[in-house]
Amino acid sequence: MTEARAAMGRIFRAREPRGLGEERVEGLAELAARVRELTEAVVLTDVDDAEVAAVAAQVAELTARLNTARRQEPPSIEFGADGAFRHLAGPVTGRLNPIAPPVEVAVHEDGTVRGVFTLNAVYEGPPGCVHGGVAALVLDHVLGMAAAANGTPGMTATLDMRYRRPTPHGVPLTVEAKAVRSEGRRTFVEAHITGPDGKVTVEATGMFVRPVH
Ligand SMILES: CCCCCCCC(=O)SCCNC(=O)CCNC(=O)[C@H](O)C(C)(C)COP(=O)(O)OP(=O)(O)OC[C@H]1O[C@@H](n2cnc3c(N)ncnc32)[C@H](O)[C@@H]1OP(=O)(O)O
User: Fold this and answer.
1) Which of 13, 137, 145, 155 gets mutated to test ligand 1 (max ligand atoms within 8 A of its CB)?
2) Cα–Cα nearest to 84, from 155, 143, 157, 151
3) pTM of the model
4) Domain count, the chain
5) Membrane spanning segments where (predicted)?
6) Considering the domain boundaries, does residue 127 fall inside one?
């Protein structure tokens, strides 16, 4: 597992926690949660034009306030005390990233990665359903996590999707991924999303390659 940790460090620049500090993480997570609500409100609002313009001006002011102090880059992937890693600013599981649903994931002892999440109307593709590219985003991430949980982290080299039935938005979904085999630098992983009725809506297979450098 130490080798896998070193590989994670190399591939994803994962680091020992650099001390954002739990209090700051909670504060930024709260901010991201409020912005997620704002995003949904923007997509669904039906207020009049004057109110839209007034809110747009206020949001621009808030953005300027946040920009008075900027990091060079988003917080990196960090290892936790248990050896697992967290992607605080990532677009799938990142609690600090407003575009992440976020998907809450757990890595189980047998290497299975399971997550629960709800995608709201912001992620709509066909009416009432999740955009196929968003499903691919979630699946790519958990496939990558499962490759890492297998001790063989890598970069996505191939991602094959099979959309079995529409994935509804606004309801709880689950995602599950597990590495099935590894050959040299290549790891093959399978994953699927299940709807609230227990039926699989999307299946994916991914091949992850550990870069040499
Ligand atoms: C933190 C946790 C989860 C995060 C998950 C997020 C996952 C991501 O989003 S990763 C970002 C998206 N992916 C990328 O940007 C990858 C871009 N591609 C690359 O960097 C490189 O092409 C990379 C690393 C995949 C392979 O590069 P390189 O190491 O030079 O591969 P190379 O030596 O040519 O091939 C290695 C092996 O893999 C095979 N292979 C490589 N690419 C492919 C491919 N696309 N299809 C099929 N086979 C491939 C080769 O045939 C070779 O096999 P063998 O060893 O049997 O000959």
Assistant:
1) 155
2) 151
3) 0.93
4) 1
5) none
6) yes
Q: Which range marks the domain in which residue 86 is found?
A: 2-15+74-209
Give yes or no for residue 156 CB within 6 A of ligand 1: yes
51-61 residue pLDDT tens: 999 999 999 99
212 within ligand 1 shell (Cβ under 6 A): yes
* Residue located nearest, by CA, to atom 3 of ligand 1: 144
CA 43 → CA 29, 76, 137, distances in Å? 21, 30, 20
Atom of ligand 1 nearest to the CA of 211: 29
Complex prediction ipTM? 0.90
pLDDT in tens, 57-74: 999 999 999 999 999 988
Residue 60 lies in a domain: no
Q: Which is higher by pLDDT, 3 or 70? A: 70
